[in-house]
Amino acid sequence: MEELVNGQYGYRDTVADCDRLMRTYPFVRGYVIGHSVLGRPIVALKCGEGTRRIHMNGSFHANEWITTPLLMRFAEEWAAACAQNGSLFGEQACKLYRETEVWIVPMVNPDGVQLALEGVDEGNPFRQQLLLWNKGSEQFDQWKANIRGVDLNDQFPAHWEEERLRRGMEGPGPRDFPGPFPLSEPEAQALARLTQSLQFDSVLALHTQGEEIYWNYREYEPEHSEGLADRLGKASGYKPVKLIGSDAGYKDWFIKRFRRPGFTVEAGYGVNPLPPGAFNGIYSKIGPLLTEFLRLHR
Q1: What is the dihedral of CA 195, 213, 115, 248, to 10 degrees?
Q2: Rounded to the nearest 5°, which phi and psi values hold at 173?
Q3: What are the helix (H) ranges across the chain?
Q4: CA–CA dist 137, 214 (Å, integer)
Q5: Amino acid 6: pLDDT
Q6: One of 76, 212, 221, 266 is an active-site residue; which one?
Q7: pLDDT 10s digits, 208-265
């Protein structure tokens, strides 16, 4: 994760680290699950061979890009511990590998992350629209949406129309526009396809910030979800919160569609984008939380 020293961790860093991880640990497999609006492959890493199949993702929102290296560090530490028959935050890594199959999508929104980190270049086909949506500013560090100005975590068919009315956004912008219809964006489509195909037992979407765990959705969640959230909270010091007044998110759709446990974890504390210097402190809590997530359904 040397790139964090320079203050960023973008799409190229993610792909390079995925390739290095798979070369170093051949039991970690990589798959392309779809492509972004600008054609960037959206990568998933698979690790583990157990009967429990779970999913983690990061960087739904562009300015929350620090969630990607958090997931990448976790994947690398788990793989290294497996290779050495070692432990991961006090848990036997190989035991987790035998019990659980984990699919990690470290960067759901590669176009948006690159925009937030590097701004809009002359060759970007959306350049004029992006500058207009960003009120003429070439500073995109507050950008959350994808390259078409759609908030990918407001894209899922879970009371989407209510979320659209609540947001009140008439068109594309840096944040909060749910799109013209559910799953209009290829990034959201890719994640929905993966989820429907693999039928995960549980999912976790990593966002920033607030050090909170959201575990419910309109009473669709299973009865034991709150207890599972409490376990994640005890592992990390994060606060489980019963959330109301929010719809159309990935976790919301998963809970509604499958009636299985889903979690949104708000990593770190402060103002987005969280500073790279906070990375190690955030990971000291996220690492144990993700390890507990691997153990949840024992």
Answers
A1: 50
A2: -175, -175
A3: 11-24, 67-83, 93-99, 110-118, 127-133, 160-167, 186-198, 225-236, 250-258, 279-295
A4: 33
A5: 65
A6: 266
A7: 999 999 999 999 999 999 999 999 999 999 999 999 999 999 999 999 999 999 999 9
Torsion sign over Cα 157, 252, 59, 35 = negative
Cβ(180)–Cβ(205) under 8 Å? no
Domains recognised in the chain with CATH numbers:
2-112+184-295 (3.40.630.10)
Task: Specify the pairing of strand 202-208 against strand 212-214.
Answer: unpaired
For Cα atoms 86, 58, 293, give the angle at the middle one, nearest 5 degrees.
Answer: 45
Residues in the chain with pLDDT < 70? Answer: 1-6, 298
Q: Which residue has the tokens 């209510």?
A: 162
pLDDT of residue 1: 56
What is the token pair recorded at 11? 């799409």
Instruction: Assess whether 266 carries a catalytic annotation.
Output: yes
Q: Position of tokens 């390079």?
A: 16
| Calpha distance 140→294 (Å, rounded) | 35
Label residue 46 left, alpha or beta by phi (over 0 means left) and psi (-120 to 50 means alpha).
beta
CA angle 214, 168, 248 (to 5 degrees): 35
Bond prior to 273 in cis (omega within 30° of 0)? yes
User: Terminal CA-to-CA distance of the chain, rounded, Å?
Assistant: 32
What secondary structure letter does DSSP report for 62? G
CB atoms within 10 A of CB 197: 9
d(CA 164, CA 144): 16
Contact 167, 154 (CB under 8 A): yes
